[in-house]
Amino acid sequence: MTSTVPALGTRTAEGSALQAVLLDMDGTLVDTEGFWWDVEVEVFASLGHTLDESWRHVVVGGPMTRSAGFLIEATGADIPLEELTVLLNDAFEDRIGGALPLMPGAGRLLAELYEYEIPTALVSASHRRIIDRVLKSLGAHHFGLTVAGDEVPRTKPHPDPYLLAAAGLGADPARCAVIEDTATGVAAAEAAGCHVVAVPSVAPIAPALRRTVVTSLEEVDLTFLHGLMTEMR
């Protein structure tokens, strides 16, 4: 795993129950969920298959193996999962060759977390090769730790990636705020015991216990995140 783990910031620990912020990548910080679907459509078209638009809600936010496996089964495409995974990652890497569009409010939120020394991790189901490319647009310095989907035995919707990120930052999962855009990611964060801020990208997500739903990251700042933890006391 490629990471740099900082000490827990004193300004974070004092006066607030918030110990760390853990953020998803695709659809949460960068506007790439549509890119993934376009790539899947293109790759399967090259294999002679047309994807149904309704399948987009099934594959969004999931690990590559789950999404690709579902599409193979749904289309009946004659291609090994490992080969398809390489094709999809290659096509996506080509698509994100330049600067990526950030989601509204993402750049401002990352800058604020960095300024106030909030321990922050990027936790994605995407593979390491993809994360390292996207970090060029996000700024690797914003994250003390990054966790890729191909670096954990079980990725989202299992809690493992978020538990690993919290441990790496020296934080209690119950005192971590997770920001996610899909039901798969929300399930992973909640299974890890974190408080979730959901910013739905493709499919709606309902509010629930320990889950706050907003329409944009423009609604989320450090005061907002501290307030979530204060309400939990």
From TrEMBL:
InterPro entries: HAD-like_sf (IPR036412), HAD-SF_hydro_IA (IPR006439), HAD_sf (IPR023214), PGP-like_dom2 (IPR023198). It holds the Pfam family Hydrolase. It comes from the Bacteria. PANTHER family: 2-DEOXYGLUCOSE-6-PHOSPHATE PHOSPHATASE 2, PSEUDOURIDINE-5'-PHOSPHATASE. This is HAD family phosphatase. It comes from Streptomyces venetus.
